[in-house]
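quick q for whoever's on today - can somebody do inverse folding on this one?? i tried earlier but teh output was garbage lol. tokens:
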């Protein structure tokens, strides 16, 4: 299996090569040259596999240059009930990512039982082991430069802390995350972890990551790698739980399932799209946004109109406060018939005019792709958290609430619908209290998190300043 860039400007590369590169050197994103296919027969054979076995089977389709036994070892040590045991009392942690049915045909896919209480742990714990494995084989090191709106940062830091040959430089938007999210990251005192709060939004931080990665001399000299979903390994690891959820939801290989996905950087729902491209029977993918509704607007109109940080609102589902969705480029690559010249044309237009409009043929392809979208406001979010608590005794976080809200509006009657849970309520105590009148339970081990000393450096959103800091702290030079 070879990988190509959405912008067509780099030679095809293998899984192990692109894992360390993150962003392609032409500024595009790596995608498989051809999506691997999973037949109905294979789906049938996958019934009854443990999560780790399923992860091995799916990852083996993407990582053709790795031995299956190595993949199996990484998956068996990553996807254990000991790692994914931080969720609600009574959860079946052995399933790793269980579907909890609130109604016969409506379920929540629990993805937030990992060490940082968000779905990012599902891929990031695996990535930690994978990086160490690949780095050891190549006898090299990695300076990870990442951007977070609240959850990728802590997931990456927990997965990479203390690992040989890896340093993490994580950019977070100053003042735009919950208290719990800040404390999770900034309380880490490990020598290989550097937290930088940039004065701007997540998009500003992500732009810096792309600008630094775009300086190819600097990238090579300092071995810059990525943990954001621009790194294909993240997406591939997220594809696994769509298969797992579908296997839990169905008894026949012909049954389709709808997924509703709280969305920001478009990585999570893109993984669902990839699963569908591979042959998973998916009826509909619902993109749930908050008040930062760039993706909602696109799926309603065909116009992709990004916004600057002054027009990116601080909301009560803060991890989705994103107005430039990186992974959207991978979806548009498919929509254009996998045409890199057209992707370059559209992204050049986007850089100049801050928007593009698809042509009629492309818009028809979007309409046929099975996506719909819905947006939620603060009031919708609060009402949804309260209703789900009152009706089912199940407490959801504000992002998952946006997903449920969207599912209610956009689901197909009679088709089983699963909403992806993207974080635990404990991370967003103030909003939960506003919705239901009490604070969410804090999982064991996190009771004193907010009291721990914090270490973070604040700086203007300036790529050169970040480069200077990274160069100064690159121990491997
Ligand atoms: C809690 C939570 N929900 C939803 C999202 C949106 O996911 P994606 O960026 O993959 O669209 C994020 C961030 O990515 C998140 O942290
Ligand atoms: N919501 C994310 C934003 C980054 O997303 P990623 O999937 O590209 O890493 C966060 O919590 O940081």
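ok took a stab at it. sequence:
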């Amino acid at each position: 299996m070879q990988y190509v860039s959405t912008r067509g400007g780099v030679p095809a590369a293998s899984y192990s090569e692109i894992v360390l590169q993150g962003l392609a050197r032409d500024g595009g994103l790596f995608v498989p040259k051809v999506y691997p296919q999973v037949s109905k027969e294979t789906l049938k054979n996958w019934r009854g596999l443990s999560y780790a076995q399923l992860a091995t089977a799916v990852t083996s389709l993407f990582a053709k240059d790795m031995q299956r036994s190595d993949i199996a070892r990484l998956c068996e040590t990553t996807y254990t009930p000991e790692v994914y045991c931080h969720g609600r009392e009574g959860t079946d942690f052995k399933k790793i990512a269980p579907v909890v049915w609130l109604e016969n045909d409506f379920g929540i896919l629990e993805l937030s039982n990992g060490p940082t209480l968000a779905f990012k742990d599902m891929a990031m714990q695996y990535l930690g082991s994978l990086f160490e494995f690949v780095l050891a084989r190549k006898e090299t090191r990695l300076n990870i430069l990442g951007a977070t709106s609240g959850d990728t940062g802590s997931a990456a830091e927990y997965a990479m802390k203390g690992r040989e040959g890896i340093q993490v430089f994580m950019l977070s938007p100053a003042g735009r995350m919950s208290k719990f999210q800040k404390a999770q990251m900034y309380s880490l005192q490990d020598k290989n972890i550097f937290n930088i709060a940039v004065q701007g939004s997540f998009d500003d931080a992500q732009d810096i990551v792309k600008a630094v990665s775009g300086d190819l001399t600097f990238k090579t000299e300092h071995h810059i790698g990525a943990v954001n979903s621009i790194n294909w390994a993240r997406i591939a690891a997220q594809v696994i739980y769509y298969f797992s959820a579908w296997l839990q939801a169905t008894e026949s290989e012909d049954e389709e399932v709808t997924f509703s996905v709280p969305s920001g950087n478009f990585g999570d729902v893109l993984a669902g799209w990839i699963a569908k491209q591979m042959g998973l029977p998916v009826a509909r993918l619902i993109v749930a946004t908050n008040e930062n509704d760039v993706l909602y607007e696109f799926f309603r109109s065909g116009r992709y109109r990004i916004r600057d940080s002054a027009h990116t609102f601080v909301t009560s589902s803060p991890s989705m406060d994103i107005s430039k969705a990186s992974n959207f480029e991978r979806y548009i690559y498919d929509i254009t018939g996998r045409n890199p010249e057209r992707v370059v044309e559209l992204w050049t237009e986007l850089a100049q005019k801050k928007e593009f409009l698809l042509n009629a043929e492309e818009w028809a392809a979007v309409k046929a792709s099975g996506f719909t979208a819905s947006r939620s406001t603060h009031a919708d979010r609060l009402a949804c958290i309260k209703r789900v608590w009152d009706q089912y005794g199940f407490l959801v976080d504000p992002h998952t609430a946006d997903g449920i809200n969207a599912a209610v509006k956009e689901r197909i009657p009679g088709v089983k619908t699963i909403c992806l849970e993207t974080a635990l309520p404990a991370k967003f105590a103030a909003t939960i209290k506003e919705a239901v009148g009490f604070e969410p339970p804090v999982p064991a081990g996190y009771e004193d998190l907010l009291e721990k000393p914090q270490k973070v450096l604040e700086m203007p959103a300036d790529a050169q300043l970040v480069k200077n800091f990274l160069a100064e702290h690159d121990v491997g030079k």
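fwiw The longest helix spans residues 120-138. also The first strand starts at residue 3 and ends at 5. so keep that in mind when u check it
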